[in-house]
What we know:
There is one protein chain. By secondary structure, the chain is of the alpha/beta class. It has eleven helices and 14 strands. The longest helix has 14 residues, at 6-19. The protein is elongated, with a radius of gyration of 23 Å. The two termini are 44 Å apart. The site of zinc ion has 5 residues, from loops. Keywords: Hydrolase, Metal-binding, Multifunctional enzyme, NADP, Oxidoreductase, Riboflavin biosynthesis, Zinc.
Amino acid sequence: MQLLNDEAYMRLALQMAQSALGQTGINPVVGCVLVKEGRIVGMGAHLKRGQGHAEVLALQMAGEEAKGSTAYVTLEPCSHYGKTPPCSDRLVEAGVTRVVVAGTDPNPQVAGSGIAKLRAHGVDVTVGLLEMEASAMNEAFNKYIVTRMPFVTLKTASTLDGRIASKTGDSKWITSEASRAYVHTLRHRHQGIMVGVDTVIADDPQLSARGDVPAVQPVRIVADSQLRIPLGARVLQEQDRQPTILLASAQAPAERRAALEARGIAVLTCGDGPQVDLTLAMRQLGEREIGSILLEGGGRLNGAMLERRLIDKLVLMFAPKIIGGGHLAPGSFNFAGFEKMADAIALDRVEVEQFGPDISITGYPIYT
Ligand code: AOF
Ligand code: ZN
């Protein structure tokens, strides 16, 4: 790569940000490159919530050389006192004369004021370089910071005829190893991983991120209105390493709740109906600072979440197989559905990728 122009430096900053995806919690991923007279003098990425912001780390590296440099930042430098002091002040103090920003920070505490502060101090600020790329990698942050509701990615792995198991319940494996490796990357990139209790009863999954390399483990979330989960289920083990949250109704038996809580498992009461109030559940998870969730089924929970418009993104993985099985073979989306094709939930910004023999379709539901 030839590091000669603004775009190339911003791409480098974006690459650094992208590589920290999954490790910043509810915070965005941010990269910063400082350039002076054609030389990179500092680089930084925000790596963990509560720790240094990208700009501060790059400034530390540059030391005296920051004076008179240009900063390339993938997100507007902050202007507020959060867990760390404002980056815009730090850039000004260090004598940075030009700042190139990909996009503004949607955080209501920032929202343009970081840029305004820089300009007020005579810094030359350019906004909008590679904005789409920068914003896309923070799609979860962008939603959470304004709504306090988690960004939910629904992932399915089905046959071409949309089945997630055969008529006998066999589901190992539908998709290839390459697809499953990608799912572990998705798990690493979300703060929570969620399934329905029927999936736990049927498959006894571990719900951890297991790739070739160690990964950040998402909190495990199980929608279980009546607390039917078996105490021996694998998702309930190793709570010190990877905590589990159960979403239940107030109707769930009190003794079940007590037994689970005694094992250190958090049980959230989500309404008093026969089924978990999923909107309330998402709100409560948001309050617990879970800003992104990977939903992995089964069909009924997928359908219910989609019906309630709680899904932000879909990653649908299809193995090139047909299993059939009529009503007996479960599908990826089990809900009442619509009468007219015109009312179907359509996907926007559709992208197709291949993992080994499998096809993945990514898109964003349009709720009308
Ligand atoms: C930046 N550079 O590298 C990041 C920013 O709690 P704090 O102090 O970490 O602040 C978090 C907020 O700061 C976050 O919501 C977002 O608005 C901004 N993140 N800003 O200038 C960075 N990570
Ligand atoms: Zn900052």
